[in-house]
Structures are given as C-alpha cells and as structure tokens.
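User: I would dearly like some help making sense of a protein record. This is the protein in question:
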Amino acid sequence: MGRKVALVTGGSRGIGRACAERFAREGWQTLYLCRRLPEEPVPGAEGFVCDLRDAAETERVFGALLARYGHLDALVNSAGVALQAMLQDTTDAQWRELFAIDLEAAMRLTRLAAPGMISRRQGSVINIASMWGEVGASCESAYSAAKAGLIGLTRALAKELGPSGVRVNCVSPGVIRTDMNAHLSEADLAALAEETPLQRIGAPEEVAAAVLFLAGDEASFITGQTLGVNGGLVVN
C-alpha cells in the first residue's frame, strides 16, 4: 500500500501551513494549494499555485494533481479570509469575495474530490470553520455567515457521502495566533486569553493536530461533527 495523500488549501501560512507540516511529518504525501508559493516551502510537502476563486483554474490544478498522484485520502479545506466591517459598510463585492474563498472553494474542491473517494469507498474531508460560524461575531457578519455555511455543508455532506464510506467533519478554531488575528493588539489578545478557560491563545499546530486525527483511521466512526479547538471559550 502506498503513502496516503493529503491535499491542504491555504497551505502557505497559518492553520493551513501547520496542517501541511503535520501531515508531512506523519509520513503522508502532502500537497498544498496557495495563491503564491511561500518563501519558505513547507518541509516535506509540495506546493502548487491556485487561485481558488477561479473555478476553471481550480479544476485544472486538481485534475493535474489527481493524474499525477492517482487518488486523494484527505482533503483539508483551510483557505480563508476575514473581513472586519459592519454589514452596512460591506459591499456586495466584498461579500462575494469572502464567500468565494471561505465557502465556495471548499464546496468546489469537495465536489472534485468526492467521485474518487466514493469509487474507493474511503476518504476524509475536513473543513476549517470558526467559532464565529457557530455563535456569530459583531462586525464580522460576512465571515460568520460563510463559516456557518461551511458547518452546514459539512453536516449535509456527511449524510450524503457517508453511505459511500467517505467522512466529512469540521474543525472550529477559537482565537488562534495567525495572520488573520494580526490586527488585534497584544492587549486585545491578552483580554481574549483571560476569557478563555485555558487562559491562553491557541496555536495553529493545535488545530492541525485535530485535523490529523479526523483524517486518520482512529476517527473512522466520526463524521458530521464540528470539533471545537477553542480552549473552552464560548461566546454567546
């Protein structure tokens, strides 16, 4: 049996990069997509440029990877962008741009990956959502809505693909120290850490550990779930 193959989107930085690094360390044949290749490649993984907003480019790149590597055991939809803005200040273009990356790209790649996984009667899709997709965030309505949609997509596809042996789960991070939270001051982060029962901010590697678990055989009877990696932080 050959190496398991994982494809991670948004793999050049943040949670996506941490996922790619973790899969590679665990011996998976690890591929990652990004808009621009990072100056420091992910050790042990292969990066490919792909604008996930472009359906034709996504299909072309995915087709080339499938032809080269033969199959896919795990798909990690991690690519995402955020937008801090009140709804009345959010333009249609901004809304569409965010949804194209945070929700539609995951839908499209899963649609591309599903036939191969179904034919092999195995495979795992892990979507990276957010706690804000569960509870909503003030001044982040577009981001919250897209991530809520990703959670809904996860639950629906788990039922749709489960009879074919394909599992679909979601990881919902809390406050993680990534570029997406770079706009927060150290004082803001300290306040969020204080609100978190574990009294600290999370690391991308901790999210990656949850993703690897859901992708592996130890999670073989887990599907349709949203796993919170949030230090116990729950905001109503």
User: Anything to note?
Assistant: Helices lie at 14-25, 55-69, 92-120, 131-135, 141-161, 186-195, 204-215.
